Amino acid sequence: QAYASTFILLLLIKLLIKTELPTVTLQPNWPQIFRGEKVTLRCEIHGNRGAQLKYEWKPDKQNSPTSSEYRINTATESYSGEYSCRARRDYQITDWSDAFRLTVEGEPIVTLQPNWPQIFRGEKVTLRCEIHGGGGAQWTYEWRPTSSNSPTSSEYWINTATESGDRYWCRARGDYHITAWSDVFRLTVRDKPTASLTAGDEIIPLGGSVTLTCSVSSSTGWKFDWFRQKSESSGAQLIRNNEPHGVISISEGGLYSCRAGRGDPVFYTENSSKVTIYKTGEFRSLLLNNKTRQV
Ligand SMILES: *[C@@H]1O[C@H](CO)[C@@H](O)[C@H](O)[C@H]1NC(C)=O
Ligand SMILES: CC(=O)N[C@H]1CO[C@H](CO)[C@@H](O)[C@@H]1O
């Protein structure tokens, strides 16, 4: 009997504590809040009939109110966070409410993927529509100009960059919202670059090697291919492929050239001009061989 009444008493206390716990609600209660919107967080205590309470808010930002309403007149991403409140009257205070997560979504931005500083005529280009803080939201996208390639996806493909000065915009659509159009993204397309090849030396010393450097003066993301011809008349052979650094060391004479490529499908620069590399020793042994044969 005594056990049962203690149990019921504890349960009652627990219930009482629970009902005294405030909750944070959002008005209007949209699942997504965007930059620039006006919203209000409200601290509610179940069963409070007009009692004059004082409130505290967490995080304690500048000008956090002491009233039950936390008004945000112009939402920005910096208001994103987890909010709790508690109420006080005379010398009684409630516990902190459960945290309420507020996420303020930014504006959409068009970015280049990967973010290369320059794009060249003939290259395949990927644009992406990104929304700051928009992780997890179920968006569909719209693009200007419209494209049959990617009508509602966050990525937009331009199969072969041609025009210079083309302009693109995107916006995102959620269940209850549509964002404003992004700022304009201007795609500037340049002429295909030429790789340039420089040799550390044109003569390979006996038993040594020479360094060749392949480079492209504009943009980034390049990988390098190397070709060698044994003589003027023979065909070029690919000797190195997809080297991340444009420097190789060679110990064979020949005509060397290089090119750079990037992307998928690979976009190649023009071939570099050819550089002749001589090898000492080989020539001497050639002569020696002929001499011994003659002897
Ligand atoms: C570059 O050289 C390679 C090897 O000779 C050749 O296969 C390729 O077509 C050349 N590329 C261009 C753009 O001329
Ligand atoms: C001048 C001369 O005899 N040259 C020969 C040297 O040897 C090579 C190959 O062994 C021949 O192709 C050259 O004709």
Automatic annotation (TrEMBL):
<feature type="signal peptide">
    <location>
        <begin position="1"/>
        <end position="19"/>
    </location>
</feature>
<feature type="domain" description="Ig-like">
    <location>
        <begin position="22"/>
        <end position="103"/>
    </location>
</feature>
<dbReference type="InterPro" id="IPR013783">
    <property type="entry name" value="Ig-like_fold"/>
</dbReference>
<keyword id="KW-0732">Signal</keyword>
<dbReference type="Pfam" id="PF13895">
    <property type="entry name" value="Ig_2"/>
</dbReference>
<dbReference type="InterPro" id="IPR007110">
    <property type="entry name" value="Ig-like_dom"/>
</dbReference>
<protein>
    <recommendedName>
        <fullName>Ig-like domain-containing protein</fullName>
    </recommendedName>
</protein>
<feature type="domain" description="Ig-like">
    <location>
        <begin position="193"/>
        <end position="276"/>
    </location>
</feature>
<dbReference type="GO" id="GO:0006955">
    <property type="term" value="P:immune response"/>
</dbReference>
<dbReference type="InterPro" id="IPR003599">
    <property type="entry name" value="Ig_sub"/>
</dbReference>
<dbReference type="InterPro" id="IPR050488">
    <property type="entry name" value="Ig_Fc_receptor"/>
</dbReference>
<dbReference type="GO" id="GO:0004888">
    <property type="term" value="F:transmembrane signaling receptor activity"/>
</dbReference>
<keyword id="KW-1015">Disulfide bond</keyword>
<dbReference type="GO" id="GO:0009897">
    <property type="term" value="C:external side of plasma membrane"/>
</dbReference>
<feature type="domain" description="Ig-like">
    <location>
        <begin position="108"/>
        <end position="172"/>
    </location>
</feature>
<dbReference type="InterPro" id="IPR036179">
    <property type="entry name" value="Ig-like_dom_sf"/>
</dbReference>
<dbReference type="GO" id="GO:0007166">
    <property type="term" value="P:cell surface receptor signaling pathway"/>
</dbReference>
